[in-house]
Amino acid sequence: MANSAISVAGLRVRRGGRVVVDGVGFDVPRGVVTGLLGPSGCGKTTLLRAIVGVQIVAGGTVTVLGHPAGAPPLRRLIGYATQSPAIYADLTVTESLRYFADVLRAPKSDVDRVIAEVGLTDHADKLTGSLSGGQLSRANLAVALLGKPELLVLDEPTVGLDPVLRDELWGLFRKLAASGVTLLVSSHVMDEAARCDRLLLMRDGKLLADDTPQHLRERTEATDLEQAFLRLVRETEVTPS
Ligand SMILES: Nc1ncnc2c1ncn2[C@@H]1O[C@H](COP(=O)(O)OP(=O)(O)OP(=O)(O)O)[C@@H](O)[C@H]1O
């Protein structure tokens, strides 16, 4: 699709001597929230790594905002939050973000903006090492928001957060999408799937579905997305490709 934020075709990745992403292809439209859902170990992080250009791939193509994944112009267009926060425990939230803003050449004024966006203004002067798990994941997300990237790739950003914070973060994702940002968000919690505009469902390195939540429910005649996922799994088991 010419206007896609991300185009993946025939992607294969080997890790630890085995194929962990196996012939995956899809397009991610711009300005919407796409959820990447699937059980632990199915290949979500590996696929996200291929999209941000830090994963050696065995085959296929990954095009991001019109460039091959990993191309230098993409560095300032993509915000990537990894699953394990990569911020320094002995700096405060503000100091950490100032540091990353410098590295990313984002404007200094971004620091206060992103801290407010993730709801950490009251904790801005705390050492990141003394933050709770949920506060730390929000600080990690704040790094990805520096420089106003066009594409946000977020690896399980809500893991370990209580329902209220999860809800607030999804509110932020929706706000960002409404302002034109494209979000690709991974999760292994099916109840988050319903919050996405589109879903990519993965299992064992393969893509089971690329659809809207509503259409997925309709075509599997399922009452919820967890059931839809299970029905898709059974379909693939009955008709092996
Ligand atoms: N550094 C590595 N070396 C070898 N194999 C790896 C490595 N990292 C991941 N794998 C394997 O690749 C497969 C896909 O892992 P990946 O982390 O992409 O899954 P995931 O869906 O993101 O899982 P989770 O939801 O638990 O984060 C798994 O079988 C995993 O064991």
Task: Give a quick rundown of the structure.
The protein is an alpha/beta fold and 241 residues long. The protein contains seven helices and ten strands.
Question: How would you portray this structure in words?
Answer:
Strand 1 and strand 2 form a beta hairpin. It contains 7 helices and 10 strands. It has a 6-stranded mixed β-sheet with strand order 6-7-8-3-9-10, with helices on both faces. A 4-stranded antiparallel β-sheet has the order 2-1-4-5, with helices on one face. It is α/β, with parallel strands linked by helices and 241 residues long. Helix content is 33%, strand content 27%. The model has no long low-confidence stretch (mean pLDDT 92). It folds into 2 domains: 161 residues, Rossmann fold, CATH 3.40.50.300; 66 residues, no CATH class. Helix 2 crosses helix 3, helix 3 packs across helix 4 and helix 6 packs across helix 7. The longest helix has 16 residues. Bound molecules: adenosine-5'-triphosphate (ATP).
Give keywords:
241 residues, alpha/beta, Rossmann fold, 2 domains, 6-stranded mixed beta sheet, 4-stranded antiparallel beta sheet, 7 helices, 33% helix, 27% strand, binds adenosine-5'-triphosphate, ATP hydrolysis activity, ABC_transporter-like_ATP-bd, P-loop_NTPase, ATP binding, ATP-binding
